[in-house]
Structure formats: structure tokens, C-alpha cells
């Protein structure tokens, strides 16, 4: 990952939903051994969703959704929307949001 993209990710975590999640993580960490097991973790300033089946998935702020989708689409040989969506859901470690209008918690574009 380039330093520029990494900085854009971190900057994107200023969105209210990611700010709330980051604050929850930090408050929880302050509880020490009484901390709850949360589905999110911060590693080197990047936010990850802990998916039991797929491991850690990088959280992508909404202003980067279209760019990430486009990059995935192009790198997969232009499989169309449905093919790209399926690969993002079951392939690369990216978590694009806590929820969406379509009921899909991994892709909200």
C-alpha cells in the first residue's frame, strides 16, 4: 500500500461512523483485562474489521469506495459490477462499511 493511500485511509476515518468506532475501541482498550472483544481493531493507525471466517479486513472510508471498487474491477479483468462485487465480498480483505441500504455489511457504495 502506498504511503499516500494509507494517509487517505487514515484521513477518511474522520467520518462520523469511523470516529465512533475508533472512540469505542480506545475506550474499550482503557478497560484492560475487563475489555470486551470487539469486532474492530486498530493496527498502525489503520482500522480493521475482524471477520471470523476471513480474518482481518481493512476498513475503507466511503470517499474511497468508488476508487477501491474501480481498482478491483480493473485488476480482475473487468468482470462487471456483479463479478467485482462478488470478489470484493469473498476475496480481498476490505471492509467498506458497517451497513448498507442493501443489507450488505462489507460493501456500501
Summarize the structure in words.
It is a single chain. With 109 residues, the protein is α+β, with helices and mostly antiparallel strands. The chain has a single domain (3-95), classed as Endonuclease III, domain 1 (Orthogonal Bundle). It has 4 helices and 4 strands; from the N terminus they run ααβββααβ. The protein has helices at residues 3-12, 16-29, 65-75, 80-90; strands at 40-43, 46-51, 55-59, 94-95. A 4-stranded mixed sheet has the order 1-2-3-4. The longest helix is centred in the first third of the chain and has 14 residues, at 16-29.
Q: State the low-pLDDT regions, or none.
A: 98-109
Question: Fraction of residues in helices?
Answer: 40-55%
Structural classification: alpha+beta
Q: Order of strands across the widest beta sheet?
A: 1-2-3-4
**How many separate domains?**
1
What's the pLDDT, averaged over the residues? 76
Report the principal-axis shape.
globular
Output the number of helix runs: 4
Order of helices and strands: HHEEEHHE
Please state the CA-atom Rg, rounded to the nearest Å. 15 Å
What's the count of strands? 4
Percentage of β-strand residues: 15-25%
First-to-last CA distance: 21 Å
What is CATH's topology name?
A: Endonuclease III, domain 1
